[in-house]
Amino acid sequence: MPGFGDRRARVLVLGLAPAAHGANRTGRVFTGDGSADFLMNAMNAEGFASLSTSRSAKDGLQLTDVYISAVVRCAPPENKPNLKEIKNCQLHLEDELAVLTNLRIVVALGKIAFDTYWRVVTGREQTPRPRPRFAHGFFFQAENVPSLIASYHPSQQNTNTGKLTPSMLAEVFKKARKLAKDL
Fold first, then answer.
1. Largest CB tally within 10 Å, which of 24, 39, 93, 135?
2. pLDDT tier at 35 (50, 70, 90 boundaries)?
3. What whole-number distance in Å separates Cα of residue 162 and Cα of residue 117?
4. Helix axes 83-99, 111-121, angle to 10 degrees
5. What residue ranges do the domains of the chain occupy?
């Protein structure tokens, strides 16, 4: 399932995979389930999304200055893709990054998205070594590649337990908005 959004975006939101009961049903990543609503609410508050929820690919959602994609392009068993599945889909992400020429910030939702982003940019100039460790709110300003903000994934497991709260995700998108303008 391809990503979607503003092709002139300065911000890329990189998630894990299409959700079996959300995106797999609607045909668009981060639509149709609780994780999508949690994400869209935070993005809407910062003006990236025209709606605070997204239940259908035909709901009128418009994204501004942001593009949403996923590391894996199909719903993996138990929502846990293996490395082979991730590497098989990596070319799609590389192609999207090549087309999104205005990117300044990548918001990586979860450790798998965080790790995959670094794997994709490995080999480009100024790739940090050692690779930074994942932590919610972590920001790394890179040279010659879009900078990175890490966030816990807005899965129901994380949001229902309070590991990721609405205010935590709101702060990530406030930071993304500011950095997209400043960098």
1. 39
2. confident
3. 25
4. 60
5. 4-182
pLDDT at residue number 127? 55
Structure-token pair, residue 108: 């990586």
Given this model, what pLDDT does residue 125 score?
46
Does residue 70 sit in helix, strand or coil? strand
Report pTM: 0.90
- CATH number for the domain formed by residue range(s) 4-182: 3.40.470.10
Residues in contact with 45: Cβ distance below 8 Å, sequence separation at least 6, in sequence order? 52, 170, 173
pLDDT at 74 over 70: yes
Tokens of 138: 């972590």
β partners of residue 68 = 4, 13
Between the CA of residue 153 and those of 5, 67, 81, 102, 145, what are the distances in Å? 19, 16, 14, 24, 22
CA–CA distance, 94 with 98 (Å, rounded to integer): 6
Residue 100's Cβ-count burial label (10 Å; 0-12, 13-18, 19+) is: buried
